[in-house]
Structure formats: structure tokens, C-alpha cells
Amino acid sequence: MSHPSILSISPLSTPWRGADPFLFMAHHLDLYPEGDGALAPKASLAGRQIGSDFADKEGWNMYHGDRVPGFPAHPHRGFETITIVPEGYVDHADSLGGKARYGMGDVQWLTTGRGVMHAEMFPLLHADRPNTLNLMQIWLNLPAASKMAPAHFTMFWNEKIPVAELDGGVRVQVIAGKLGDVEPLAPPPDSWAARPEAHIAVWLARLPAGSRWTIPAAVAGLSRSLHTVGSGAVSLDGEVLPVRHTVQVLSDATLTVRNDGDGETMLLLLQARPIGEPVAHYGPFVMNTPQQLQQAFEDFQRTRFGQWPFADGAPTHGTTAERFAVFPDGREERPQGAAAD
């Protein structure tokens, strides 16, 4: 690596292990076929390990789903998930009674806090064409003071997420952290991102062919990483960053990214000041001590984090491509001005 601001370059493994406060990120790029009219693949599932299908056979996975792809009900405590879905759909359900269908540019920000069970299924809504899913899920740690905060989720609808329109047709979805004059939506109140001193940024950039993006310098001492999550490579100040790779960089350096390919590609930037607290992590729980982890398992066995209010562990929400959210308090929300895809 010739550039002094580049600390490391590595393949974007699944999951990618991050630097404090980013625990990891999973990038799912599944080229699902046509649906069967009931949200499942119109394709044979022969040769797949149903219940744990991660082999990327034919370019897609069932994951833990047995009919519809996805992740049936499972628990979490002590961190947040930021789920970014540029293409495709997710059906969310949780043990507090919430549910949602989101995607096509939407972001869900879930504070698991003291505990929640949720399911994330990937409905194949289109029976007449492929159902590509491009999804990034970031696990963002919570500081000790917020680990037992109430669980809740927030929807950032694509139509409401601020976008920085830059030279050369570059468009940056500003999910967290101000970019120039573009202010993001408010993060959940108990998030590390709610603290100005944390300098958190989550930016998803779309770079047309031949364009460049100059990424402004931040303060020193932050964790800062870039991830190629689109269909093409980029060059970072002359250093090639292939598709599905990640680069760790110094946070106080100005960087120039170029897309020298023939089509549009995407780049995800993650940045934050480290929390700097001990991390005890096992399976779905992230706490500060082994004793707290043990307590998390005991609490889940006793309470199921609110029980499960749905008929099965892998709920889906109908066959129309209409995005919505129903929150545990009964409030309903839909993106304004949105049309079904």
C-alpha cells in the first residue's frame, strides 16, 4: 500500500469484523430468481442445506429460511443494527409487536437495548422478473450506559433520507453524520450516534462511471472504513479497491475516490470515535462482562424478550410491494409519495 492514509485493505468477508464501535457488518448480495407468487423462489431448493444455506449456490442463499429466504425469529441485546437496503425488500417482525416491510433505499435503525426478538425475511415479490437483494447490516455497539435502554426501531424511508448531490453526478445518502451542509435525520436517542463527540458517519455513495468523490477529512483518532458494496471497483488515491473489499483509513485525511468502470457503483463509509469499553460478545448478545452475558441468556430464557406475537417464526406481510411500518404502540407509518415497485 503506497498511500500513507491507507492502513489496510482486505476482502469484505461475511461478516466483516469492524473497529470499535462497529462490531461487524454483513453484506448480502443475492441474485434471487423470480418468485413463485407466494414470496418463495420459483426454483428448486435441491442441493441446499435448508435451515442453514450460506453456500451462495446459483448466486443466492436461503439463509435460515425454509420457504422464504431470511432469518426467522432470533434474540438480541446490547447493541444496534443499521440495515441499509438499496435493492430488494425485508419483512421485519419483533417480539414487541412491531412489523414492517422496507427496502428499495430504506434504512431501519433498531436499538436492541435490553432485549428484543426479531425476524428478517426476504420476500420475493416479483413473479415476472428476478428479485435481487442488496443489503448491508451494521452492528453498532451501545455504550454501557445505554445497553439496557428500551428496545425500539426507527424507519428512515428512502424518500426522507437526505442526499448530498455532488459534482459528476455523485449522490451520497447521508444516513448519519453531517456531510457538508447536508444534515442527517436524528438517530435513536440512546445511540452512540446521538452524541456529537462520537463523530459517527454512515454515508452510502453512488458513483457514476468516470466520477470522483472527494471525502472530507474528519478529526484524528476515529475509526474510518470504506466498503465497495456495488458492482464495480474504485480507486482510492490511486490504490485499487476491488468489489466487496474494505479499506481502513486515517480519519483526518482527505481522500479521493474514483470510479473508472463502465457503470455506477456504490461505496459505504463508516466512521466513529471508539467507545473504548470492554466488549463481551457471544452469539446474539453484546455486553461488557461475561456475567452480563450470562444474565442476558437467563433473561431471554425467562421472558423471551416479550414473547412472540406472530403465528410462526418467519412472518411475511403480503404480496404487494408496499412499504410500511407498524410500531409496538400501534402507530402506523408509510413513506410519503412512494409508489409500489
Automatic annotation (TrEMBL):
Limits of the Pirin C-terminal domain: 206-306
Family: Belongs to the pirin family.
Protein name as catalogued: Pirin
Pfam families the UniProt entry points to: Pirin, Pirin_C
Entries under InterPro entries matching the protein: Pirin, Pirin_C_dom, Pirin_N_dom, RmlC-like_jellyroll, RmlC_Cupin_sf
Domain annotation Pirin N-terminal: ranges: 60-140
